[in-house]
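Lab notebook page, bench 4
Experiment: in silico fold of construct C2
Operator: M.H.
Input chain length: 416 residues
Purpose: comparison with the prior construct
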Amino acid sequence: MSPVTPTRGGRKLRRTLPSVALASLATAALVLAAPAVQAAAASTAHGVTVAHSCAAPTQQNVMACNALKVTSGTPKSAHAESDLTAAAAPSGYGPASLQAAYNLPSATGGSGQTVAIVDAYDDPNAEADLAVYRSQYGLSACTTANGCFKKVDQNGGTGYPRGDSGWAEEISLDLDMVSAACPNCKILLVEAGSASMTNLGTAVNTAVRLGAKFVSNSYGGSESSSDATYDSSYFNHPGVAITVSSGDNGYGVEYPAASKYVTAVGGTSLNTASNSRGWTDTVWSGAGSGCSAYDAKPSWQTDSGCARRTVADVSAVADPNTGVAVYDSYRSATGWMVFGGTSASSPLIAATYALAGAPSSGSSPASFPYAHTSALYDVTSGSNGSCSGSYLCTGTTGYDGPSGLGVPNGTAAFTG
């Protein structure tokens, strides 16, 4: 069957544009940053103002991070009571809330596993900021000295690239989300020399070469005819769980989330509820989804509305209005902040894979959730755009584009 033609955000994004339209968060529109300016726009329905941490790319095959920072307003996730482990808890969901929402065995799982974070540019304060986050929530120290934390450049050395405050926010978000979901995991931060797909892909290969079985990538750009080459060069790593955020532009597909070798991670709004779970997820309006223009459909995907690769596979919280607490102090950062975007959901899912244990040699971890759909909370409502009512942009029972198969209910869906 031919893919459903999108009428809004699903058109192929052009990297050469100075600005790109972002899908509406409820009734208001956000605008991506111009090349040298971070954008911020109000969402009156959600009551928060957000800004993209990273500037929009101006060249082909250059990526942008998918982190959204709340700059004003009060998120619904402010001061989650279960996270009050210090005198003044930061706004946004912390580890206790995220572990409870997704039924994660974080106190006992993940020991000995290494989750790699791949980002562009350097965050000189990464280790120090991570220490503040973990101390705030009573998590054990994760430092270079005790062997828990390691930072390398894209080739595995210590020739770190230049610092960048926007990507530093992304790095802090990623490190904090791995810590929240898997406090016992080790963390490997691999910093690419720039945001080009070539450099970021080299960093992915380095992460795998250094032994990481779980690699999170919270960035993306428009699809291109080069994607098949990138697939084989950077993402074809059997036995390694590679997660990629699906994007924050609403209905439409980004690469490398479209790679058939990765787990594409969509986004939800996460709220407390009076049901037996105590929580509920709905499709976040900014989550990326849709039908790839280039990548072939993996054998484990069986949805009929897209002849090629469908995005996403699974999801987790990404709505800035139900955002997560993050600590970052590099350059203009203000310390404790609230973040959203699928940059939050990708490291959460990578850490969930780690909690489930190392994938077997030669396996395809992206296929694991498709074999264990009953171990996911289905996301059945919400939309991220207009696609003639198709599941490609609308939450529905079973598989749908924005939330994939659903959100974690423990770790069983992430085991081979």
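Observations: The two ends are 30 Å apart (CA to CA). The chain has a mean pLDDT of 88.
Next step: discuss at group meeting.
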